């Protein structure tokens, strides 16, 4: 095990890959849902940019080109972001990992959970995904897991509720 500059031990997997923890990835349906939202969001600027190019002239075609470059970059980025997401059920905590460049590992102790929501809007249902929202005693520590298949979201909700009740009983 290596040490940090402060002299404290650092686990072999680093702070975002704890040793002995296997993360479960979210569903690829989340990629489709996010790409649909992306297409709807970029549709109006793309049409406006093309109209601007037609009305103003040759130099204004830079606007649709910029929208196309942005769309291409986001088409590349969204699948990578979704593949970087995952969760793991440890002995006493639920771990949620997100991010590529700016990574986040959220650890929620089961005993701190107050209730668990499962959400799915029309687009989520069409893409076959749901979101599990964890509510804790502190609003800043609420966590969510997007992109779960509905059956897995229901299973996780029941399991987290059971584990949370068991941990609260011990307090």
Essential attributes:
171 residues; alpha+beta; PH-domain like
Q: What is the H-and-E element order?
A: EEEHHEEEEHEEH
The number of helical runs is: 4
> Number of domains in the coordinates?
2
Q: Multimeric state of these chains?
A: single chain
Q: Which range best describes the helical content: under 10%, 10-25%, 25-40%, 40-55%, 55-70% or over 70%?
A: 40-55%
| Spatial order of strands in the largest sheet | 3-4-5-6
Whole-number average pLDDT?
Answer: 86
Short description:
The chain has 171 residues and is α+β, with helices and mostly antiparallel strands. It has helices spanning 29-56, 62-83, 122-127, 150-169; strands at 2-3, 9-10, 24-25, 86-89, 93-98, 104-109, 113-119, 130-136, 143-148.
Descriptive notes:
With 171 residues, the protein is an alpha+beta fold. The protein has two domains: 29-81; 85-169, PH-domain like, CATH 2.30.29. The protein is built from four helices and nine strands, in the order βββααββββαββα. The chain has helices spanning 29-56, 62-83, 122-127, 150-169, and strands at residues 2-3, 9-10, 24-25, 86-89, 93-98, 104-109, 113-119, 130-136, 143-148. The protein has a four-stranded antiparallel sheet. Helix 1 packs antiparallel against helix 2. It is elongated, with a radius of gyration of 21 Å. The two termini are 34 Å apart.
List the helices and strands and how they pair.
Blueprint lengths: L1 E2 L5 E2 L13 E2 L3 H28 L5 H22 L2 E4 L3 E6 L5 E6 L3 E7 L2 H6 L2 E7 L6 E6 L1 H20 L2
Antiparallel strand pairs: 1-2, 3-4, 4-5, 5-6, 7-8, 8-9
Helix pairs in contact: 1-2
């Amino acid at each position: 095990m290596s040490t940090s500059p402060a002299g404290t031990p650092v686990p072999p997997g680093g702070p975002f890959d704890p040793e002995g923890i296997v993360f479960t990835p979210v569903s690829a349906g989340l990629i489709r849902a996010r790409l649909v939202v992306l297409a709807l969001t970029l549709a109006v600027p793309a049409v406006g940019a093309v109209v601007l190019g037609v009305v103003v002239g040759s130099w204004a075609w830079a606007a649709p080109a910029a929208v196309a470059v942005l769309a291409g970059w986001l088409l590349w980025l969204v699948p990578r972001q979704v593949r970087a997401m995952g969760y793991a059920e440890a002995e006493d905590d639920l771990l949620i990992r997100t991010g590529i460049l700016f990574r986040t590992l959220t650890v929620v102790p089961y005993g701190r959970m107050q209730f668990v929501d499962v959400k799915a809007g029309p687009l989520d249902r069409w893409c076959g995904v749901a979101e599990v929202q964890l509510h804790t005693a502190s609003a800043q520590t609420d966590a969510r897991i997007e992109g779960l298949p509905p059956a897995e979201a229901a299973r996780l909700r029941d399991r987290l509720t059971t584990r949370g009740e068991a941990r609260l009983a011990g307090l």
